Amino acid sequence: MRTRAPDSAAGRNRSAGSRAGFSLIELLAVLVVLGLIATMVTINWRAILPKTELHSAVRELSAILQGTRSDAIARNATFEIQYDLDEHRYRVVTPFRVSGADGVGGGLAPSNEDRAALAWHPLPKSVRFSSVSIGTDIFEKGIVVVRFDPLGSASGHVVVLSQPQDGNIYTIEVQGLLGLINYHEGLFERLPPKEDDFK
Length: 199
Description:
Layout: H1 5-19, H2 24-75, E1 79-84, E2 89-97, E3 115-117, E4 121-122, E5 128-134, E6 137-139, E7 143-148, E8 157-163, E9 168-174, E10 181-185
Antiparallel strand pairs: 1-2, 1-7, 2-3, 2-4, 5-6, 5-8, 8-9, 9-10
């Protein structure tokens, strides 16, 4: 009388096996959700990447400026930075004359023409020099030269970097008297001091 029990257990196992797994509609729904997530991540990454390139360019240029100021103080000599606004690149010009394979180390140069210039640092392709300002003079083309003196002072100037296709702008300010470097997101213009500032 109990010989049919195994048959009913086998029937239950077969029906459970037929319900296991996913239907085609469920798999398609999962693929659609994964596709939407991948699209959102791609869109966000494309929005973040340009600003990352701009911030990287600002950090690299700032490091070169700070290093040049330190070298001027340590070596008790005047160093220069040249900004090439047409080719969107910059380089350091040392006070030493060209000598040897590395191009530096032949003693102090007797004239500006004999000074050894280091390699150009190009900006990332999406980043451009908008302008370099020295005092009230604003330069948008050509090569602009600024100096760092042995006492730590510098040619006070403002460098504006931009990404025209994305509308991102960053300003690097080098203070003349102390040679300190400040960073500002967007356009920045330091207002002249007022009489009340000294009271």
